[in-house]
Amino acid sequence: MSSPVSPATPANHSRRRRRQLAVSVVVGGVCLWFAFHGVKDGAAGQHVSLETLADVLRRVPASAYLGYLLLFGVQVLLRVERWRLQVRGLTGKTPSWGDAMTINALAYAAVFFLPFRLGEFVRPNLCASRGIMSASAGLAATALERIIDGLVATAMFGALLLLAPFEWPPWVRAGGVSALLFFGSAIIALLVAMKARAFALRVVHRLLGVVSAGLAIRIGALVGGFLDGLRCFRGPGDVMTYLALSTAFWVVNGISTAVMVIGVDPGATWIAGFVCLCFLVIGVMVPAPPGNVGNFHAFAKLGLTVSGVATLPAIAAAVLLHALSSITVAALAAAFAALGTVRWQEARHALDPADASMPPARGPTATPP
Fold first, then answer.
1. For the packed helices 236-264 and 135-163, what is the interaxial angle rounded to 10 degrees?
2. What pLDDT digit, counting tens, does each position of 121-149 carry?
3. pTM reported for the whole predicted model
4. CA 266 to chain centre
5. CA–CA dist 99, 45 (Å, integer)
6. CB burial class (10 A; 0-12, 13-18, 19+) of residue 44?
7. What one-character-per-residue DSSP string does 117-143 give?
8. How far apart are alpha carbons 177 and 195 in whole angstroms?
């Protein structure tokens, strides 16, 4: 006779959240230490002070900030249009630009600033409360978005290995080759899953069930959600449009990152900005405290230093990119909350995962660094 499963209670839920917060704070603290450890003034050989760091940032030209803001706007338009394509495919109706911008602005801010990926529930629950589509359909759309973003970012990293005019450290090259193999394998697996959904889900449950029944359920739900999200594609034209919008988003994202990196260090290459973005994609998937503090800085610095950027400008660029991400995402959410049709109270209520029927998608978050 199987053991009864303890029901989830508010007290258990609260304890689990506290443990998760503690883990994320520790991880973020370790990453923050790693980011600033060993950063020295090349001339004096001393650890960098805040004044030295501020002096580096003061030299960034205004044109870099202007370019970043313009490219940030392009990214917003690309990802919102991509989401509108999904909604149109799932419901037969296209949400207005006003509603789409407001919902996505609030959702992106929630994903960026809140721990435990609670922000992933904001967009699906807002869609459900406003009659756009059900919360489960919204989570299916999110699962599709996260997985496609992961595949595109992985392919981009693999391409950088071939295009970079310098020699990569062995561990980076090994990671890039692994990323390309993963990308190819994932494409094949997804094609099989599209054609044989039931078979694919059985394989997931049997393979992962050997390790953990809970893990098998969560990954199975994610795979099922992804396959449900594929219903938004009414034909090859929708698939190609979605992939084109996704690729364009990540290319513009990489360019905006490179603009700021070169603004900090004029000797840096454009490729360094794209490598920095690829490392950030990995960083945001690691449990992090609110605002990705620590994770963002450590992985941005690591991506820049392996691309040949000196340690001081690398951490300066990491600090600037994180600050700009925080400000732009928060400002966009505040602006659309004030001008749009969604009230803050409605957005806060949308944080409740009880309305959703799937776990939040784990994958790269498409917030522009």
1. 60
2. 889 888 888 888 888 888 888 888 888 88
3. 0.81
4. 27
5. 53
6. exposed
7. TGGGGHHHHHHHHTTSS-HHHHHHHHH
8. 28
